[in-house]
Amino acid sequence: MVHPFYSEHQTFIESVHKLVQQELTPHLKEWEEDGNFPNHVFSTLGKQGYLGILISEEYGGIGADYKLAGAWCEAFGELASVGLTIAVNMHSLVISHGLELYGTPELKKKWLPKAVLGEAIGAYAFTEPGAGSDLARLRTKAVKQGNKWIINGSKTFITNGARADFMLVLTRTDASAGYGGFTTFLVDTKTPGFKVNRKLDKLGWRSSDTAELTFENVEVDEGCIMGKLGEGWSQAISNLNWERMMLTLTSLGGARACFREAAKYSKDRDAFGKPIGEQPVIRSYLDSMLQRILIGESLGHRALELVNLHKDCKTEVSLAKRMICDDAVWLADRAIQIHGGYGYTVEFPSERWWRDLRLMPIGGGTSEVMANIVVKELTR
After folding, report:
1. Domain map (residue ranges) of the chain
2. Is the pTM of this model over 0.90?
3. pLDDT tens-digit profile of 10-63?
4. What counts of helices (H) and strands (E) characterise the chain?
5. 30 catalytic, yes or no?
6. Residue 189, SS3?
7. Which CATH architecture has domain 124-230?
8. Which of 78, 243, 261, 316 is catalytic?
């Protein structure tokens, strides 16, 4: 079913659902067990045009708006592998998009056509062992030596970190300049001194790589600066708002799919001589689940509309992320309860939905940080 908010994108959404069911869903169990999905998933999506939604035609994309990107997030988010969906969306909707916004013509010409085709995979290296939501504590430094910049530091929890061909790396370039002392560089991961320390073993997102990285005297040219020197902080904040919107809508799609599966199970599973869906307590669960989805759609789509209009909407995005991502975890937990003992096995996807969705209130800024942003914006 296509939500009325996306009525003009019905054909597009149906094509995404078809792709998910035919080319990806049959392999999810295998990829989950392997702890990795193959890189050819990127090229498969790229050849069909799904990796260039926000990228201009000049570089092989389709130059669409945030609303079509939102339609993609919700439709693709129904794939029961949140790690895979976020790995793809970070590459195509956040990193490649950021490169087009802030990269030099040379960088865009070198990387974007390959990124759109899935031939080069990107990652965003912001988070550090001591600097998660609090980016002001970031310690990775870039020091200028002649006409080069030398990067030293470490990053962690980096989606696509182990498979990336290029990476946007937030560094501190002037400790005395406050928020103006941060700069983002594009780093080719083949550059000497770049190292993947390890892939992190995780509760969920098991089919995608999340890595811990080290930069030891990594040398980059002046032309690898994204935007201008000292603009890294403002770029990060701007990118985070859209990244949070992407995470929110992906969670909404996942919650909707999880609800449908639970509702179907409640019709198919008999207990005490009738389907469990006819039991008052199960009906109350399903009623509450649907209620939260519908409220989430209203808040999420309102925030997306403002993002698409390029409005200042940190409050709306933060509210939407906190509520929808928290509710998605609650909803997955109810789905496990509806499935009973089977919900605690890997035979049904509700346990994977719970494990995977559990990261959404953490990634891109925790629910607590979202609440702080809302209060700060309201009292400013």
Report:
1. 4-120, 124-230, 240-379
2. yes
3. 999 999 999 999 999 999 999 999 999 999 999 999 999 999 999 999 999 999
4. 12, 9
5. no
6. coil
7. Beta Barrel (2.40)
8. 243
